[in-house]
Amino acid sequence: MADMQNKPVEDLNELLKVRREKLSALKESGNDPFIKTKYDFTDNAKEIKANFEAFEEKTVSVAGRIISRRIMGKASFVGFRDGDGDIQLYVRRDDVGEETYAAFKKWDIGDIVGVKGFVFKTQTGEISIHAQHIELLSKSLIPLPEKFHGLKDTDTRYRQRYVDLIVNPEVRETFIKRSKIIKSVRKTLDDVGYLEVETPVLNTIAGGASARPFITHHNTLDMDMYMRIATELPLKRLIVGGMNRVYEIGRIFRNEGMDTKHNPEFTTIEFYEAYTDYKGMMERTEAIIRNAAFAANGDYNVTFKGVDIDLQKPFARKTMAQAVLDVTGIDFESFAQDNEKAVSLAKEKHIEVQKGKETWGDVLVSFFDEFVEETLTQPTFIMDYPVEVSPLTKRKPEKPYLTERFELFILGTEYGNAYSELNDPIDQLERFKHQLMLRECGDEEANMLDDDFVTALEYGMPPTGGCGIGIDRLVMLLTGNESIRDVILFPTMKPIE
């Protein structure tokens, strides 16, 4: 309720008092609005306005909220908003009855009403509903904000998303598009034979990604557990079990920083397919993003941060070493695996090299992060990551110091991460051991050793391609929202003291 209308506290308290007095009067007269249990409506504002010729002069029934009103003696115009859009109501005493009209004039902006009447156009050409019956379905006890977008405390929109949705139709449209995007992602994979599955949120090992986990405690078992940081390892166990095409759309939890691209809990899709590789995942990824763009906007092109992005043409493909060479002029392939030269170059370019990461591969990634990532505007698959930063990825046969991995970048932001999955249990165990060494060196985001996953690989996993895409970032791109908080209904917020 803070800064609700930028009104003085005493004025706001008086408004709250008046509304509660109105509620008491309603209850005393036997008209308690909170007793209502059901209202049958058959139509919505958006459909009526979009198909006026079909609805003209026909009786409709709608339910929603009063958002404005002009009372003019024996008749009133009401701004009305339901779950789909806005429409004007025309309420006249002679049509709804003197008693109902007298009660109506005491209702408030924010109250929820049910209306039956016929559709017409006013003299000014506005499509409206001429009410023949109107009733109060629920009482609003707190006034709606007058200038919600003008609040200085901008995070009030996120803390009170319910109010944000009431007063800002464009916010509701974002989440309608989010739903369409997720449905499209599912359809794209379902149509080629993928099976949607669910895997555990609570785990005894935090695996499948480089991230700090949230830790919780299971009272009955008296043991600490981790909220999942990825769905990768359980899904690959299913590939071992013979479920050859699986995916999961689910919440992921990472105990990391918060900014416009990161929220501690977020949504991803991970999908895995037996008998393909990371190039096959590129084709799936393009299809997912392209189809989602059309589902949300009816177009394959989007504008984000003022830049036009073409999602229809094939995405660019470039190796990480080539991308670094193009931007910096430094050819890392010419001194591949020369750790000493790589570290020397890093010092020359004032790039910090962390303990345990004094390798050619780690330095190559640091150069990419520092100099290249922000230059990638149009969709680009950056391929062939060093083995040091890809503990779950199959090596390239011709260059075993690199892996068959890609990340998708658009406007300098990562949107997807995919591998030809490592299915050699001996190599996987050694990679896990390297991650343990990094943890001992203080890297809290390094992978933990998952013995059972290694055991699963020992039973035999077919060649497999896998990919993860951040749903929230994809929604940001396709809806034009520049903050992840604008595409998550209830983003993580620090409590108000």
Description:
It is a single chain. The chain is 34% helix and 25% strand. Helix 7 crosses helix 8, helix 8 (169-190) packs antiparallel against helix 10 (278-297) and helix 8 crosses helix 16 (471-479). The protein has 16 helices and 20 strands. It has helices spanning 9-28, 45-50, 52-55, 93-96, 98-104, 156-159, 161-167, 169-190, 232-240, 278-297, 320-328, 339-348, 360-372, 425-440, 451-458, 471-479, and strands spanning 59-72, 75-81, 86-92, 112-121, 127-138, 195-196, 202-203, 215-218, 223-227, 245-253, 265-274, 301-304, 307-310, 316-319, 380-383, 395-396, 399-403, 405-410, 413-420, 464-470. A hairpin with a 5-residue loop joins strand 4 and strand 5 (127-138). By secondary structure, the chain is of the alpha+beta class. The radius of gyration is 29 Å and the shape is elongated. The strands form five sheets. The chain has an eight-stranded mixed sheet with strand order 6-10-11-20-19-18-15-14, sandwiched between helices. A five-stranded mixed beta barrel has the order 1-2-3-5-4. It starts with 8 loop residues before the first helix and ends in an 18-residue tail after the last helix. The model has no long low-confidence stretch (mean pLDDT 94).
